[in-house]
Amino acid sequence: MKLGIDISQIVYKGTGVGRFTEGLVDAILNYDTENKWVFFFSGFRRQLNEKFLQKIYSKKQHTTKWSLPPTALAFLWNDLHILKPPFTKKLDWFITSDWTEPPTYSKKATVVHDLVFKKYPNTVHPKILSTQTKRLQWTTQESKLIFVDSQTTKRDLMDIYSVDDEKICVNYPGISISHQDLDKEAKLNVLKKYKLSDPFILTVGKVEPRKNIKNLINAYNALREEENVPDLVIVGLQGWDSEVAVNENIHYLGYVSDYDLAALYQSALGFIFPSIYEGFGYPILEAMAYGCPVATSNTSSLEEIAINGTALVFDPFNQKSITDAFLVLIKERELRRELVKRGKQRSDEFTWKRYYDTMMEALIKNK
C-alpha cells in the first residue's frame, strides 16, 4: 500500500500528542518493510529534528513539508475545508491526528486521542476548543476509520457524535522507555541538579486546568498541616490558566529532559496523577515501567489502565480522597512493593509493535 501520515505534532516535546506521534513514526520505520510512506509535516517556526528526518530517509521513505503555521492550516482545513494535499492522489490512506482535518483525495483514517473539549470544555483553552470542535465535525463525516486510544474515547465518540461502532478501532498506544535502571550516582546527580531531597512524591503532566494540579496542591498542603510527609515534585510544561503555588516543600521543575525524567521516576517514593480526564494517560504507564508505585484518578481511561490492582485509585474531585491516596503511598511499604510488581507487568502490555500491527490490520481490512 501507499500510505501517508501527518506528523506535524511531533515537534511538541513534553506533550502526550508529541510522544504519541514520535512513538508511532518510530514503529512505522522499525516494523514496516512492505509499504511506501509519505510523512507530511507543516511548520513555520518549529522544525523537525534533523536526526529524525535522516532516520526517515534511511528507510527510503519520503517527507513532504508545507511551510505554513498550524493556525493557517487549521483555517484552511478545519474552517474552510479546502486545499486537498496533491500528494494524497497517489495514496491508499492518509492518517491524520490531533489538530487539523484536511480534505483528501485518498481514503482517510484519523486518530482521536480524547474528547475533553466536549466532556469538560471549561478545562480547555478557548482556541483548542474551537479548533477541535471544527475538526471533529469533519472527522466524523469523512474518515472511514477512527483510531482511538481507549474504550473511554470510543464511548464518547458514539455517545456525543453517534459514530458507528464499526468505524472505530480501539488501539492502545505503546510507551517508549529509555534510560532504565540508572545507577545510584546518576539518580543522585539529577536530584542535586534540581536541589531535591529524597524521599519525594512525583507528578508529571502539562500544568493546565484538566490536570487538576491546583486540587492536588490543596490536598497536599492540607495533609502537611497534619503529617510530616515527603516533598511534592511537579514536572510538566506550563499551560494556560494554571499557577503552581510553590513553597519549600513543593517543587515545580517545568519541562525536563527524558533522561532527567527517567531519573525522577526511578527515585520517587511514589507517583500521583490527579487528572480529571485523559484519553490515555502516558505518565502513569511510564511511572509503572520505571518501577514507581502509582496512585491515579478513577476517571476516564485511567481506570482502564489501572485495572486488577495495578495502581491505587482516588476521586480527583474529592480532597480527602487525594490526601488518603498520598498517605497510603507514603506509609504502606508492602503495598508499594506490590504496586511496583503489578505496574511493571501492566506496562509491558503496551508496546508500539502491537499498536502498529493493530493499525495495519485495520487499514488492510478496510482498504
UniProtKB/TrEMBL annotation:
- The answer on whether this UniProt entry bears the keyword 4Fe-4S reads no
GO molecular function terms listed in the Swiss-Prot or TrEMBL record: glycosyltransferase activity
Q: Which GO terms describe its biological process?
A: lipopolysaccharide biosynthetic process
Top-level taxon of the source organism: Bacteria
Gene3D superfamilies linked to this entry: Glycogen Phosphorylase B (3.40.50.2000)
Which residue intervals define the domain Glycosyl transferase family in the entry? 197-346
Q: Which CDD domains match?
A: GT4_MtfB-like
Q: Which InterPro entries match?
A: Glyco_trans_1 (IPR001296)
Q: Which SUPFAM superfamilies match?
A: UDP-Glycosyltransferase/glycogen phosphorylase
Q: Which Pfam families match?
A: Glycos_transf_1
Question: Which parts pass through the membrane?
Answer: none
**Keywords assigned by UniProt, alphabetized:** Transferase
Designated name of the protein: Glycosyl transferase family 1 domain-containing protein
Source organism per entry reads: Candidatus Roizmanbacteria bacterium RIFCSPLOWO2_01_FULL_38_12
